[in-house]
Amino acid sequence: METQPNNPLHGVKLEQIVTDLEAHYGWEYMGHTINIRCFKDNPTVKSSLKFLRRTPWARTKVENMYLKMLKKNPIKKES
C-alpha cells in the first residue's frame, strides 16, 4: 500500500470523520455550520454517511471541517 505522508485524511474512514466531528461539535453545531438536512433533521451517523457518500460537495465540506478540527486539536497517534 502506498503511503501518503502529506495527506492527513489518508486511511481515515468517513464514518470515523463523522463520529469524531459529532463527538467534538455535536449535531446542532454541525447542522448550523454545514447546512445539510442529514445533520439537522433526526441526525444519525448512518443517514449522514449515506448522504455524504452520494454528495461530493457535502463530503468535501465535512472533510474540511474535520481538517480544521484536527488543526486546532491534534489527535495523538499511538506508536
From TrEMBL:
GO terms for molecular function: DNA binding. Gene3D superfamilies: SAP domain. It holds the Pfam family VF530. InterPro entries: DNA-binding_VF530-like, SAP_dom_sf. This is DUF2132 domain-containing protein. It comes from Bizionia arctica.
